[in-house]
Amino acid sequence: MALVVCQDMATGSFAKTFADVDLDDANESSIPLNFNTEDVHEERTNVSSSGTSKRKRKNIEESIEDDRIQFVGEKLGEIAEALKKFTEDKTPLLYEEVMSMETEGFDDDFLCNVFDFLAKNEFEAKAFLAKKTKHRKIWLQKFIQG
Questions:
Q1: One domain, residues 57 and 120
Q2: Helix or strand holding residue 87 (H, E)
Q3: Region (Disordered): which ranges (predicted)?
Q4: pLDDT mean across residues, the chain
């Protein structure tokens, strides 16, 4: 009998086996077979645990990367929503609200001038839209005076 080392091509691992070989009985006794199976088992365990550790680390890294991508995606969504609100055209609403003051006794020509002024002055327009009708009326009266 002789010790034969074979490589498994599918897994790339090596295996040690004993194979029948035609040897003289005299030679057989002169070949010392001192084979420690614990060393082989220990090597296989080290390779296996090392591979598992690398896979776990890779999975954790991928998970962290996925979390970061999700976080960035959520933040981009929030930014897009804020930009949408910021750039939303409030002009039709402003026009409607200014012209509704006609019922409070202001003429159409005056309200058109007020609208033009507010359309050019965003801060004033926001303040006007935030006011209740009675406060808008006071604002319009002050606007007439100059």
A1: no
A2: helix 37-87
A3: 34-59
A4: 76
